[in-house]
Design brief:
The chain has two helices and three strands, in the order H-E-E-E-H. The protein is an alpha+beta fold.
């Protein structure tokens, strides 16, 4: 959990549970991971039958942009996401 910044306001006792929830999300729905810029991450999730705003190919894109100094956080999210979903690292 070293990628989680000291400034995280989530109580320390909840961090493992939240990481597990992200793993479950990534395992079930994550299909693509892209890092178009050092401070930007794009995650492509499979859309379910009720998904209205899916991109072409049925993916729901989530774009994450962080301020300078938080590149390590995105690095950690990428490592967790690709490991859980069995994808290639961008």
């Amino acid at each position: 959990m070293t990628w989680i910044p000291q400034t995280c306001t989530l109580p320390a006792g909840q961090v493992p549970m939240r990481l597990d929830e992200f793993d479950a999300l990534f395992v079930r729905w994550l299909r693509e991971v892209a890092r178009p810029e050092p401070l930007r991450l794009r995650l492509g999730f499979a859309g379910g039958p009720d998904t209205v705003d899916a991109a072409p190919g049925g993916l729901v894109d989530v774009s994450v942009l962080v301020p300078a100094g938080y590149e390590e956080v995105l690095d950690g999210v990428v490592r967790q996401a690709v490991a859980a979903a069995g994808l290639e690292s961008p």
